[in-house]
């Protein structure tokens, strides 16, 4: 039973919706806050929005440091976890993403049962 719960969408995560300025306390589901849903919400004049904050404070300090090193983020020496999480979160929110290309690539990788690790061993060089 525990394994089934762990495999459930959003297990251990809370909902990311905000209603009338208060964050939802229900567990996360597998629904999508798509453009169609946003349009329906605005037509019905509901005061419902998505929480755009990215909580990277839950990550380990070493993970945050690896992210900082990978993207060559400049910080003062001796940053604590909260400062590091804020810096990484700010950078993460500002990364431009081509959603259509990303989704197409993701679907291709899922349908072909491949991962980025498969790509690295096949081509001899890692994808960036």
Automatic annotation (TrEMBL):
Can you supply one Gene Ontology CC term for this chain's record? Answer: nucleolus
User: Can you tell me which family this protein belongs to?
Assistant: Belongs to the SAP30 family.
What's one Pfam family the UniProt record gives for this protein? SAP30_Sin3_bdg
Q: Which domain of life is it from?
A: Eukaryota
Q: Which GO terms describe its biological process?
A: regulation of DNA-templated transcription
Q: InterPro entries in the record, alphabetically? A: His_deAcase_SAP30/SAP30L, SAP30_C_sf, SAP30_Sin3-bd, SAP30_zn-finger
What does the protein in this record do? Functions as a transcription repressor, probably via its interaction with histone deacetylase complexes. Involved in the functional recruitment of the class 1 Sin3-histone deacetylase complex (HDAC) to the nucleolus. Binds DNA, apparently without sequence-specificity, and bends bound double-stranded DNA. Binds phosphoinositol phosphates (phosphoinositol 3-phosphate, phosphoinositol 4-phosphate and phosphoinositol 5-phosphate) via the same basic sequence motif that mediates DNA binding and nuclear import.
Q: Decide whether keyword Ion transport is in the record.
A: no
Task: Report the GO molecular function annotations.
Answer: DNA binding; lipid binding; transcription coregulator activity; zinc ion binding
Protein's UniProt name: SAP30 like
Keywords, ordered alphabetically: DNA-binding, Lipid-binding, Metal-binding, Nucleus, Repressor, Transcription, Transcription regulation, Zinc, Zinc-finger
Q: Where in the cell is it found?
A: Nucleus, Nucleolus
Q: Where is the Histone deacetylase complex subunit SAP30 Sin3 binding domain?
A: 59-111
Every Histone deacetylase complex subunit SAP30 zinc-finger domain range: 12-55
- Provide the species name: Rhinopithecus bieti
């Amino acid at each position: 039973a525990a394994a089934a719960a762990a495999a459930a969408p959003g297990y251990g995560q809370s909902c990311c919706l905000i209603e009338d300025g208060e964050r939802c306390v229900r567990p996360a589901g597998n629904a999508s806050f798509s453009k169609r849903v946003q349009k329906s919400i605005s037509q019905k004049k509901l005061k419902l929005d998505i929480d755009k904050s990215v909580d990277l404070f839950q990550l380990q300090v070493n993970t945050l440091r690896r992210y900082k090193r990978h993207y060559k983020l400049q910080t003062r020496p001796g940053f604590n976890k909260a400062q590091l999480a804020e810096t990484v979160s700010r950078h993460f929110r500002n990364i431009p993403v081509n959603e259509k290309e990303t989704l197409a690539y993701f679907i291709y990788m899922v349908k072909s049962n491949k991962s980025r690790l498969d790509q690295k061993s096949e081509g001899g060089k890692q994808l960036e």
